C-alpha cells in the first residue's frame, strides 16, 4: 500500500458509523434496502464491514439518512475510498482468511487458544511448511510457499520495535506432542516457542492433559482488541470453508470470560517453560 491505511479496519469503522446513522434515523435495514432497491443482506454486509463499500453507496445512504453536515459526508466518503485500497496481503493473491489478516494487522492485542498446533505467529518457517503441507494435501508447492510467506509476513507484528502486537497464547499439550514434520523439527519449534515467550509482549501458557475438561474444549478461537476505542473487539473462529467473526458485546464478553478460565487453569509462564523443556527432552531422547 502507498499508505498505512488498513482497508479491513476502515470498512469496519465505516460500517459501524453507517449503522449508527441508520439507528439514529430509526430505520431498519429492511426499510433502507427498500428505499434503495437493494437486498437487505447488502445493507447488513456493508454495516458489518464484510463487503467493500463504494463512495456511491455512502452517498446514497447519507441521502436516505438525511445527513446534512457535509463534513460528516466527506469524512465517510474518504473512509469509503480508503477501504478500497489494498492491504499488504493482497500482493500474495487470493488469501482465504484475508479479513482476519486485516484485523490482526491493526490489532493492539491478541488472545488465542490453540488446542492442536503451535499458534501461527509463533511458528518456525519449517514447522509452518510441514503443517500446511499436511493440512492441505492437495495444494500445490507454490500455494504452500505462498501461505508460508504470508505467515512469515504476519509474524513481523511480533518483531515490530515501535508497536508490537501484545500476544497471549494458551496452548494445549497436544500441540506440543503432535509431531509435525519430525522430532528434530519439533525440538527446533519448541525451542523457538520458549525463546519467543521471553519477549515482554508475548505470554505463553500450556494447558496440560491432566487438567481434564476445560472451557476451551470446543476448539480454537482468538480475541482481537484494537487501539482505537471506536473499534469493537472481535472473536475469530476459524472454519474449513468459512470463518466466524463475533462482534456483539455479549459474545465477546462470554469468550473473554472463557479465556480467563483457561489462563487460570493453565501452567504459569515459568512452569510452562519448564514443561516445554521436558517435552524437548522427550523428543531429544527419542532421536538418539
From TrEMBL:
A Pfam family: DUF5753
InterPro entries listed in its UniProt record: Cro/C1-type_HTH, DUF5753, Lambda_DNA-bd_dom_sf
One GO molecular-function entry: DNA binding
HTH cro/C1-type domain segment(s): 18-73
Protein name in UniProt: Transcriptional regulator
Originating organism: Streptomyces lavendofoliae
Amino acid at each position: 500500500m502507498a499508505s498505512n491505511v488498513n482497508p479491513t479496519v476502515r470498512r469496519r469503522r465505516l460500517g459501524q458509523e453507517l449503522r449508527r446513522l441508520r439507528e439514529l434515523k430509526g430505520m431498519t435495514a429492511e426499510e433502507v434496502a427498500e428505499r434503495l432497491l437493494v437486498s437487505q443482506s447488502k445493507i447488513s454486509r456493508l454495516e458489518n464491514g464484510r463487503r467493500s463499500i463504494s463512495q456511491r453507496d455512502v452517498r446514497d445512504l447519507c441521502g436516505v439518512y438525511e445527513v446534512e453536515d457535509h463534513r460528516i459526508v466527506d469524512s465517510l466518503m474518504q473512509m469509503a475510498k480508503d477501504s478500497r485500497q489494498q492491504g499488504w496481503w493482497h500482493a500474495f493473491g487470493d488469501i482465504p482468511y484475508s479479513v482476519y489478516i486485516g484485523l490482526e494487522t491493526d490489532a493492539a492485542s491478541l488472545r488465542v487458544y490453540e488446542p492442536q498446533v503451535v499458534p501461527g505467529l509463533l511458528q518456525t518457517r519449517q514447522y509452518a511448511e510441514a503443517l500446511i503441507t499436511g493440512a492441505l494435501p492437495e495444494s500445490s508447492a507454490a500455494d504452500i510457499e505462498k501461505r508460508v510467506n504470508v505467515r512469515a509476513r504476519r509474524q513481523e507484528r511480533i518483531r515490530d520495535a515501535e508497536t508490537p502486537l501484545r500476544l497471549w497464547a494458551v496452548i494445549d499439550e497436544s500441540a506440543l506432542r503432535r509431531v509435525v514434520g519430525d522430532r528434530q523439527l519439533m525440538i527446533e519449534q519448541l525451542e523457538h516457542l520458549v525463546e519467543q515467550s521471553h519477549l515482554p509482549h508475548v505470554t505463553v501458557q500450556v494447558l496440560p492433559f491432566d487438567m481434564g475438561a476445560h472451557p476451551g474444549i470446543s476448539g480454537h478461537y482468538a480475541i482481537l482488541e484494537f487501539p482505537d476505542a471506536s473499534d469493537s473487539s472481535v472473536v475469530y473462529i476459524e472454519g474449513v470453508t468459512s470463518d466466524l467473526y463475533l462482534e456483539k458485546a455479549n459474545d465477546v464478553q462470554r469468550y473473554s470470560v472463557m479465556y480467563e478460565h483457561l489462563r487460570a487453569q493453565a501452567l504459569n509462564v515459568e512452569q510452562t517453560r519448564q514443561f516445554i523443556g521436558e517435552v524437548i527432552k522427550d523428543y531429544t531422547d527419542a532421536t538418539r
